[in-house]
Amino acid sequence: MSEESLNPPAEHLADQPSPDAEEPSPAAAPAEPAASAEPSTHSTAATLAAHPKVHATYAGAGVDISSGDRAKQRIKMLARKTFNKHVLSEIGGFGGLFALDLEKFPQPVLVSSTDGVGTKLKVAFELDIHHTIGADLVNHCVNDIAVQGATPLFFLDYLATGKLREQDSDTVETVVRGLSEACRANGCVLIGGETAQMPGFYADGEYELAGTIVGCVNRPDVITGEHIEIGDCLLGLPSNGLHTNGYSLARKLLFEVAGYGPEQYVNELKDKTGAALMRTHRSYLSVIRKLTAAGIVRGMAHITGGGITENLPRILPRGTAAVVDLASWTVPPLFEHLQHLGNVEQDEMLRTFNMGIGLIVVIPAEQVKKAKAVLNRANERHCIIGRIVRGDRRVIYN
After folding, report:
1. What is the Cα–Cα distance from 19 to 8, expressed in whole angstroms?
2. What is the pLDDT along the chain (398 residues), one digit of tens a residue?
3. What phi and psi values does residue 143 have, to the nearest 5 degrees?
4. Is domain 233-397 given the CATH code 3.30.565.10 in the classification?
């Protein structure tokens, strides 16, 4: 419907009786009934006659299909580099086809997860750094299914931007290259995705990024935490930094409260602000595989949004709780400086940031020595950060 049909011209409004007009007197002659006139078409016809014909296009509305197609051709090549013999489809179909290896997974359970990068993207826009964002997303999703014992199979991304300019096509390609490289590093296929142009929805040069991963595990090997027992030990593995969570608060404290620039070196951080914030969310897949192969894992928690406080209870069975010793690891300078800048309460820090621990593995006390040997052979830093006690599925800090 045209705007004109919703907003008739002023002369049409003048024909309507005013709400304040006096009622006609009883002596007044009744108005002649109007002939059954056809509804006026003046609004549409006159408007069309007054303006030359315009041939509207999708590109004129801000969606350049040709530019989008060129970007997709470049993306296809990056995705194909991740393909393996189980992929039965090409990029561009209505859906990705993947043949499950039933010899490797005779009792298959599919495990899936969806996530995004959050406001870490704002830092990427500010610094014009886009090659690591893909790895942030893939690694986050990989960890979420790996803690349940799953092997990653394939990944799908969703990337939405505003008007797709030529420089934006380069950015999209850079982001997808990061996705492709991270998929290959984690042994999964970038089987498809969506690149959407939404002019007017996103500012120039900005985009949204999210992804879905699907993995598989044999039913007897599913890890849920149901076998965790009182007396088990909590083994913590370090994070690289914020990973992909807590950026709204971190950006406010560093850029607004402290007034730092993204390229400014900060002594307390021992790094430039932007570099400290853009450290890549690490993948724990390799070390998880080594620990599960040793048969010593009772549960694992990926420490993301909500920190240890909210993520560790997700795997605790009824009747148990976790005691975490805050003195058992050194909190990285970034978190300490954030707490200082905002005078943030300790409880708030612990349920917002990972505080330097990106993965918690629950190990039977008698298997701790074996677990340490596995991690030492893998050159993986770790520390015992607590234990399982009787309780009501919560974290207790001492």
Report:
1. 18
2. 433 333 433 333 334 444 444 444 444 444 444 444 455 545 666 665 666 676 776 566 666 666 566 667 778 899 999 999 999 998 888 999 999 999 999 999 999 999 999 999 999 999 999 999 999 999 999 999 999 999 999 999 999 998 777 667 889 999 999 999 999 999 999 999 998 888 889 898 899 999 999 999 999 999 999 999 999 999 999 999 999 999 999 999 999 999 999 999 999 999 999 999 999 999 999 999 999 999 999 999 999 999 999 999 999 999 999 999 999 999 999 999 999 999 999 999 999 999 999 999 999 999 999 999 999 999 999 999 999 999 999 999 99
3. -60, -40
4. no
Residues of the chain with CATH 3.30.1330.10: 65-221
**CATH-assigned architecture of domain 65-221:** 2-Layer Sandwich (3.30)
Of 289, 148, 300, 293, nearest to 219 by C-alpha is 148
State the span(s) of the chain assigned CATH 3.90.650.10: 233-397
